């Protein structure tokens, strides 16, 4: 093996992933979107919409806590690195991550979950796209950040900005119902 | 966004969240209603319509896509899987994720009711380390589970030196996730 190739491999091995949990395969299995959608429907059917919002908040603060810690430590660079790695591992995602000193903006041109569910004729939970707000807000809040989402149902814009008193709250009507 | 790349991680976390909300019965209902009857609707339809042939058509591409290392043995009477490297449990072990009491129960939690509806019973054993075996037979077939090597030959997961570590959970002609004995 030549030195340049060896150096690349060592560098790859030593660079920690921006993702908190990693797999041996590079991309996830898209049919798992069926289960994510079904989980939302089940919780809402059994315990109502508020319980579903609590589930989204809890998964953000608990399961994704390592992400919040990295964002708190690394700021906007950490936010951008996370989302680039995240969408690289989601099959069929087309997302542009635009980073500046005071904002990270995701331009979701093709949401992998909505498209896979739609392509397979699955009934999508109407408030599916709200999960991005509740989960992402729960991750962002401990890092001193907040998220604002506009769009949904396959394409959207998500802005991660610093928490300030001036930041207007998320209007849930800006998040489109999914179908 | 909740993604599919680390699905097994938040899936396992969800079991414990549901248990805290509504106890074991809510977790069982989740596996049956959300996974068997909703998420895995495609596999239910396939297996109910085509029986063992449907099992081949479902698990072949699915386990390949998930990256499983396994052996499959199929006759006219039995469908057997020897799982040597479960991609799902393997993900949890590698990432140190362990919220719920026994993640492996979720398979019997959704496959059990599916097989019952399709007219099959299951012999199954898992060792909590990413290895397990399954035999599906028609409920009218009284044939007991195979002995090691009898069906799967050298591919039988029970031949692994690490199979019995630390203990296994065993199901005999079952379709209910609670019908297990610990060996």
Summarize, please:
With 179 residues, chain A is α+β, with helices and mostly antiparallel strands. Chain A contains 6 helices and 4 strands, in the order ααααββααββ. Chain A has one domain (29-174): 2-Layer Sandwich (Muramoyl-pentapeptide Carboxypeptidase, domain 2).
Q: Which CATH first-tier class of chain A would you pick?
A: Alpha Beta
Q: Tell me, rounded to a whole number, the average pLDDT of chain B.
A: 96
Structural class of chain B: alpha+beta
User: Structural class of the secondary elements of chain A?
Assistant: alpha+beta
Determine the N-to-C terminus distance of chain A. 52 Å
- Enumerate the strands of the largest sheet of chain B in spatial order, edge to edge or round the barrel: 1-2-4-3-5-6
Distance between the termini of chain B: 40 Å
Helix content of chain B: 40-55%
Q: Tally the helices of chain A: what do you get?
A: 6
**Low-pLDDT residue spans of chain A:** 1-12
Gross morphology of chain B is globular
CATH-wise, what's the superfamily of chain A?
A: Trafficking protein particle complex subunit 3
The multimeric state of the shown protein is: heterodimer
Mean pLDDT of chain A: 92
> How many β-strands of chain B, per DSSP?
6
